[in-house]
Amino acid sequence: MGTGWATVRHRFPRFAGTFVAVFLGVAVVAGAATLHLSSQPQAPARYGQSPVLVTPPDPGTGQDSDRRAWTAREAAGLAARLGSLPGVTAAVADPWFYVQRLVAGRATGDAQAALVDGHSWSSAALGGYRLTAGRPPRTGGEVAVAGLSPGATTDVLTSAGPEKWLVTGTVSGPGFYVADHEAARRASGVHVIGLTLAAGAGEVGDGAGRAEVAAVRAEVGAEGVVRAGADRDSLEPDSVTRIRWLGAQLLIALVMLGAFATVFVVSSTCALSAAQRRRELGLLRAIGATPGQVRRLMYTETALIALFAGLLGAPAGAAAAPLLAEPMVGTGLEPAGFAVTSQPTALAGAILLGLVVALAGVAAAARRASRIPPLDALREAAADPRAMTPARWVAGPFCAVAGAGLLASVPALPLELRSTAGLGAAMLLLTAAALLSPVLIVPLVRVIARPWRNTAIGMLVRESTLTGVRRVASTAAPVLATVGFTVLLAGTVATAEAAVGIDESAKYPAGTLLVPDGTPGLSAAAVTAQGAEPTPSTRLLITHGGATTGVPASGSVTGPAGTGDGPAPGGEFLVLDRYTAAELDARAGDVVRVRFADGAVTSLPVRAVGAEVQVPVEMVRRHDPDALTRLVVLEEDAVAVPGGRFLPVQEYVREEVDEEGRLVDLFLVALIGLTAGYTGIAVGNTLLMATAARRPEFGALRLAGAGTGQVLRIVTAETLLAVLTGAVLGTLVAVISLAGIRAAFAAEVGAEIALVIPWTITAAVTAICAALATAAAIVPVLRRG
């Protein structure tokens, strides 16, 4: 321990690469973990005064997005029984429905939140909302709402179409509150029953509160799920949960990439350090140090550096987390109102993870260092160790053969597996290129340096590079991996977006579409105004053979057309898509159990297996009155309607692809940026240490008459040659892989797709690597000068 501490204290610059890598890794983990732990589900504010909520039973699909509903009659009966329990002052069903305010004919507010903005007046008590003026709504066309005075009128948009409502009361909270019978008519079932408790019942969690909850659970039984206290947070709206999920995916990706990159940088740094300390470590062996003591020395040094870096990095990451809250909300990765809170667990976990990751990175270098023979202490000079180790000779060709074989087999794989297999093949080929880089670099360097072979500096740079292949490979390999992954990821995303655009365009005939304009869908009135029949979308819970699954379905006007069966007669029927049919092991002719959005259950015959799930449109209207239509293909002259706009097919497809691509691009920028940063650390640290070790060589150049400027030009040229070699090799491998991925996408959509190579971002990443590498290489030369 004492020797390790003394080494770290007196030779801290030697460990700068490890320190920076662990510091950055711990900061990323601490910041990401703080953001993630601060973003926890919250019960909707409209249930703020309801400490106990009851929801329908779990549907058993394993998907959080699948939720059962009670029918209005079932909910009324259960609420009446719960309201009679001791300590319960009221049990109120909360049927919600879609409503959005219209201003100058345009829908306002959040489209997804509007899906649950309509409520019954009696449910206002669950949030503690009261009338500040006027009276409650009593009949159809009346509403109590915040921000408007009694007697005013407001234009709204519902699933039926535009309506004008009379404001009868002003409410102290958000939402549109209508008469109870109106809410029951408009809503698709009931998803929540809220309970208010007597003042003497106490808060849920103490003895009195627990007694009431136990009584409610006993009364509900298998008819529902009782959620009290923090359990109510699971009722957060799906739209908000999805936003949190998107943010969590980015944070998880950053943590995983940060941990992996830290291991990579620490491993390469320690390996180079061990190689440069062969005489020192050999001397320790000569005076009696055992291999185990040498290993422990390496572990101790790394652990001390990692602990120091972690203690500084964790607070830095936590301090940076609040600065990211607003950008994450603005980019749709966290819900509105998100705030960062103190998370000591995140800091402790980040420090511990940094220590573990650093020790994992030094493991291989420690093993090699323990095998250094004592005689190495007597060596005055040594040739550059062979660049290719036996492990590289085994793993490199294996990855190359496996990647090439997988890429060649892509055309024979099922369509849904081709793109994934192409990415896997690309990963293997990039790994092979990195492992075999000492072999591949030699001919590539000769080709790149050929134009300058007759100049003095060009000759020195080429021969120095070819002599120090291991040093060059240590610089080129991180650049190879970073540039290769950049080309691969960005190119795959761009190619996939092109494929999606072609596939989506093929679904619609050339012409114009009516699509939602600031709304979650099209109302029935918007569709019928175009002379078309509404085909609203709904969600079904389908059970067959003991298996249940939740699927989106559309209303069919013409009746089912299955695979080879042609049009079928009308009546009640169900068409399954191929995936759902396989999941339920159902086929045409089977009878399945279907639960609709309003909680009603019926048995339907499977008439066909086709491209999508369909039921008669009349059944959707009956069981999901709040359903909306996704879009309409116009066959006649367009009629302007609230909540809708007209777009040519190509423009609509481009908007859809751009909307999905926005988040993907954000992920790409974050991941590629972090990767480039770690690559800069790896390359910079390698060159800083390697160049410092070459001071005798530069001294010989000066004795031969070279000036400081000439030495700087030589070092800069060597560095740029190594970076360029890695970038060219990485780009070549990635482009070959992209060609296979492009072919897979083309086969999936049945159309030709252009190969998209992201030259701009590739050049930017290469330039960043070159700038960092050059700066790190010339610092020791300038300091010496």
UniProtKB/TrEMBL annotation:
Its main location: membrane. It is a multi-pass membrane protein. It is found in: Cell membrane. One of its GO terms (cellular component) is plasma membrane. The chain crosses the membrane at residues 250-275, 303-325, 345-366, 393-413, 425-449, 720-745, 757-782. Residues 254-374, 671-779 form the ABC3 transporter permease C-terminal domain. GO terms for molecular function: transmembrane transporter activity. Residues 40-66 are annotated as: Disordered. Pfam families: FtsX. Keywords: Cell membrane, Membrane, Transmembrane, Transmembrane helix. PANTHER family: ABC TRANSPORTER PERMEASE YTRF, MEMBRANE COMPONENT OF TRANSPORTER-RELATED. Belongs to the ABC-4 integral membrane protein family. This is Permease.
